Amino acid sequence: MLKNNSAAVQEKAVRLIPGMTQLLSKRPDRFGRGVWPTYYKEAKGILITDLDGKTYLDFSIGGIGATVLGYADEDVNRAVIDVIQKGSASTLNAPEEVKLAEKLIELHPWAEMARFARSGGEAMSIAVRIARAASGKDKIIFCGYHGWTDWYLAANLGKKEALDEHWIAGLNPNGVPKGLTGTAVPFRYNDIEDFLLAVSQAGDDLAAIVMEPLRNFEPTQEFIAVIHDTAKRKNVPLIIDEISAGFRICNGGAHLKLGFQPDMAVFSKALGNGFPISAIIGREWIMKSAQDAFITSTNWTERTGPAAALAMIDKFVSNNVSAHLLHIADMVWKGWEELSKKYAFGLHIGGFKPLIHFAFPENHLLYTTFFTQEMLKMGFLAGSGFYAMYAHTEKDVEKYLCACDAVFGRLSEHIKNNNVEKQLKCQTAQAGFGRIN
Ligand SMILES: Cc1ncc(COP(=O)(O)O)c(C=O)c1O
Predict the structure, then answer these.
(1) Would you say the CB of residue 244 lies under 6 angstroms from ligand 1?
(2) Disulfide: which of 158, 181, 186, 278 matches 268 by Cβ 3.0-4.6 Å?
């Protein structure tokens, strides 16, 4: 076990913060508790320095997808520092939010209005509130992951494992009012039959169709057509959750490239390059219902979020960042493929570029924990997922793949000798979000 600054802070965190962190995916037990550094002192580009002064190249999940340009991006920081110095909160409103509304509508010409919040899950709740306010109806049919709030977790009230096929399994609906049972009905991505079943379960009480534009696969044109046709026939909004997918494969929502025509779209993560901002954009007929609902919060008016978003978008568009992200992710994908062949691992490689992952066909958690542990020794933060950032260079990828080669080589030997577990100096990574003690 670590006996250093990081270990001391982790011990305190477990006592003082239930669940240890505010985003469960940043818990060390997701990677290898005992070796994963967990806390950072500084982050710049793709470099992260931990509390013990050790610096790593980040080839893991890049701020869980929030820092699409890289850590402490100079252009975004400059814009944020400027508004901090001019006052980041006051009695009056920040004009940057109006500019951001204009900018997002310019990039998504189908949209006419925008609202802002500060995190992804709450922005999805706002979108759902607007849709329910507009229709006077309650039921939401959805696929994919949409955050921590009641409307979504309600899906697990009826059938405990309803959400298991939607990215994160085992989500606990404790604390969600049981009265919400049946108000959120899941359907499988690209599965027209399952979608139509959800539509019929919602019946005349359908308020909205909610989905991510893609997660592991691209949508089929038939699936998109049935979704559009149903939204039109039932006169309900199609809400596309771009929180993870947006500002990766093109300048704005992935739906622009895939052929979806939403009525609302929701952004966060990449939008602020790590500063807190989320946006709900939409057609006027649905967005104006926000005026007849009560949707308001003090910190949604602070100025750093929209200033960061404007600077991020400016840089993303003018540097053709999406092309770079796709190129970097492609290099890593191909590198994993080659190494998988070399060591006969039979890795499953998936996700959508630039957010990709690999999985071992057996003993996945054990083998990736070994991988993480050994990559840390070689100066990399690495797990089975990789989120490309603009700050990653081809040279960085070459160094990373070289380290992967060495570590996969050692892993292959240990697998042959059936002694991988014995090599671990930490707990095996956990897939879910169980209690942490
Ligand atoms: C598609 C999608 N929706 C919603 C969320 C929740 O966003 P946040 O963690 O900012 O609340 C996430 C987070 O990973 C996401 O990927």
Answers:
(1) yes
(2) 278
